[in-house]
Write a structure and sequence with these properties.
0% strand, single chain, 3 helices
């Protein structure tokens, strides 16, 4: 009779340990998911801010450059074709430089989710250590 009672206690202990393990794994998963969501929100706000500033700066700079070219063309009215040709060449050259810079930047890997991936790697290393630990 003592053995059957001990066996039932052993099963209850095993089920309790399994419940604790599942609860711990769910808590770890929840924490990692929250970290991913937080990183996504931060990245979204950063990108929105960057785009807004870039669009505003590009518009104002383009307007300023057009006004500058018009002023220079008016100052050198007799050579206006040469003035417009030189500025057209400068604009095309600047556009090509920006396009190559954009291509180079787009080919670099993203650093998004770097913190989450490092945390997941740490979790995996800890699980491997606990699995390989002698009992």
């Amino acid at each position: 009779m003592t053995q059957s009672a001990g066996g039932e206690e052993g099963r209850e202990g095993l089920f309790s340990a399994l419940k604790n393990l599942v609860a711990t794994l769910l808590a770890i998963g929840k924490t990692r998911a929250e970290l991913l969501v937080t990183e996504l929100e931060e990245e979204k706000f950063r990108l929105m801010s960057l785009w807004a500033k870039a669009i505003g700066a590009a518009f104002l700079l383009a307007l300023g450059v057009v006004m500058l070219v018009c002023c220079i063309a008016l100052a050198f009215w007799e050579q206006r074709v040469i003035v417009f040709g030189i500025f057209a060449a400068l604009f095309v050259g600047g556009g090509l430089v920006l396009a190559s810079s954009l291509k180079r930047q787009a080919s670099q890997p993203s650093k998004m989710f770097k913190a989450s991936l490092s945390e997941l790697e740490a979790d995996m290393a800890q699980l491997r250590r606990s699995r390989n630990k002698p009992e």
